[in-house]
Amino acid sequence: MPKLLSQIASRPVPACVFVIAASVLTAGSLPVSPARAQQAVAAAPLPDRKPPKPEGETPQAPSLSDIPAKELFSSVTTGAPMAPKPIGFYTAGCLAGGKALPITGPAWQAMRLSRNRNWGHPMLIDFLEELGKEAKANDGWSGLLVGDISQPRGGPMVTGHTSHQVGLDADIWLTPMPDRVLTEKEREDISAVSMLKDPFTVDPDVWTPAHVKLIKRASEDPQVARIFVHPAIKKRLCEDAGSDRGWLTKVRPWWNHYYHFHVRLNCPPGLSGCRNQAPAGGGDGCGAEITNWMVKLRQSEIWKAQEQAKPGKAPPEKPPLKMADLPSQCEEVLKAGRAELLPEPGEPSPMLRAIASKEAGPPLPTPDADMLNILRNGGDPTKDPVPLPDRKPQ
Asked: Where is the secretion signal located (predicted)?
């Protein structure tokens, strides 16, 4: 039984539970008569005080199905000693026989090492290594800075991603690799560079033809199912692509991919138990589709500004995936090799290290007040002029 589970089972009920219960009975702003107070206390149900278990009896361990899957998979530090296999779907699955991308190679460096997310199916690891070498040799790209791939055994993560669960997804920074080996601290602290000038426009001061060549090279690989980029980046790719446009089909606009692009591979051919996403639709996606996405971006910024004006309101969170939500083979993957779910004494938990790690990129740009006014009036901030600020307020 993994140490994490046995420790969970043996934890006593905190005394603060009973203190809180008592405070609820006595709190209030109106005076209460002694008789009313006595009636309230008499009506309150007594806590269920179960008799202590006999000495030597082993506490009942909670079932794996009761623990969020992200806490289990993020606590394992090594790959499952099994044949390589992505199991399930990109957003609900796990990874057997995962392989770690070497943290430093001739044309790549892995970032945010504290997260231990440089694991993937061997097919993806080979793809990343070859992409880095080819882009460095042919496209004027100095090398890849590789962000999150997957955890050692895939599965849900405690931060950052819904997908990346089967070892076939990888984030590649849109920042070129420096011409030196980064230290471990630099890999934790350095931020990727945003490609956006504002929420709707690529920054021409940071965007280069080499970015186009890198994404095009990745998209043209037959193993690649999709590439996700921010809608403004897709719009710019449409403008820069020229007459060769077939590769744009796989490049899909999606939220938040403004300092990296997300590569997703197809399942290995002939492998059962791994489910592909439906193929990307035909066409280059540069007409009505990207126009609709720009409308979505404008609507999103208006909505976010309205929500921020409502104090104390947080968006509802989806319940975390449990083991029962994943393919049944994922429990075998999790337990393979008698993996320990707690670090050695004195070592930080891998889950806590991942939670504490810095964001890989800067915050998404937000519109200023003048741009918001244009949006609320139905205008297009990429075309309508934003009024200059009053330099001489009265």
From this structure: 1-37
